[in-house]
Structure of HAUS augmin-like complex, subunit 1:
Amino acid sequence: MCEKSKIVSQWLKKVFGQQPVPEFEVNTRTVEILYELAESSEMRCREAEMLIEDHKQKTEEYSSDGAHLQEVLLQAVGLQAGGLSKPTVDLLSALEEAAEVLKIRDTSLGSYMPAISKLTDDVLEAEKTDRRLQRELSAVRKKMTATVVLRKKLQDDLMKLTHMQQVEAATAEERLLNMDFMKNKSRDLTYRNKLAQEKLDSRQMEDSLTHQAILQLSERIAALKEETLPLKKKLEPYNDLSPSPALARVKIEEAKRELVILFINLVLFWHLLLLLFIFVGYSNFSERFSFSQGCLGCPAGAESGLHEQFISIINKKKSI
């Protein structure tokens, strides 16, 4: 335990360097965890050092191989390392970098052309992909715009629905209150109706005097009135008749006496006209008076008979 604590302390000082080590609770668990971290860190450090050494060794090997290949290349083309101009060296470096970028084996034209063709195809494919992505992006933007509009509409609908729910909740609460009031009122009316029924029962009230019985009686009366209307219409022509046969006979006798008196008055009137005709003259009389039917207010039959009697008297007078 003490040895692990020393190793952990040394590792923490090495990690933090000049900075103070943060305080922590020292117990078996924390020491074990930090010890495992220290061991794994030391192992990674050793692996990194070994990898660095390997890369250094490979760099030296690649450098020696490059120098050897450069010397062989210069000998093959009959050139010297110091005899090349700076532009030539720059061009060679550019060819080298292009070959590395294109990942070709050598700098020959046969290697460059396929690589450039492949690179051109990649560029065309990238442009095609870019156009497809632009179309997809445009479609996504349209969908996003429609989604934003729909979201705004849904928010408005939600606000309206929330407002309607609040109104309906207030209405429902008011209806509940009204329903409670109506229930209480119904119970009160039921109780009062019960008391009134008990009072009626105690006073031995007949069923025919109840409101329901009166309503039924009223309905029956209305139905009977409807049934008697046709009979009343049939009896309307007989309303002027006397209700008693004796009175009817009295009225008939009175009417006869009135007709006799009227007839006597007419006869006297015609006799006066006759006397006037005798003294005045027939011609003047016929010009002043006209014996048309219906004159002097007498009946048509009586007037015609009197007129014929008057003409016969005049004819007798002429013959004399």
